[in-house]
Amino acid sequence: MDKILIKNIENKKQWEDFVLSNPEANFLQSWDWGEFHKALNKEIFRTGFYAGNVLVGVMLSVIEPAKRGDT
């Protein structure tokens, strides 16, 4: 089995093509959902998982600042 390589994805077409090719995916993995969160000044990461040169998975991460405690 190939090792899994992890890289940021900056290409919208590559991202959307992968997401749309997986019927279990929904709008919460879409490129535009990430752009929505960026517009709210949240930090986002679009991560791709590659087996060799083949994209086998993606992950959209949205950093949600959380206030905790009495501060």
Structural class: alpha+beta
What gross morphology would you assign?
globular
Strand order of the largest sheet: 1-2-3
Percentage of residues in DSSP E strands: 25-35%
Instruction: Let me know the average pLDDT.
Output: 92
In which range does the helix fraction lie? 25-40%
Report the order of strands and helices. Answer: EHHEE
Q: What are its keywords?
A:
single chain, 71 residues, alpha+beta, 3-stranded antiparallel β-sheet, 2 helices, 34% strand
Write a structural description.
The chain is of the alpha+beta class and 71 residues long. It is 25% helix and 34% strand. It has two helices and three strands. It has helices at residues 12-20, 31-39; strands at residues 4-8, 43-51, 54-63. A three-stranded antiparallel beta sheet has the order 1-2-3. Strand 2 (43-51) and strand 3 form a beta hairpin. It is globular.
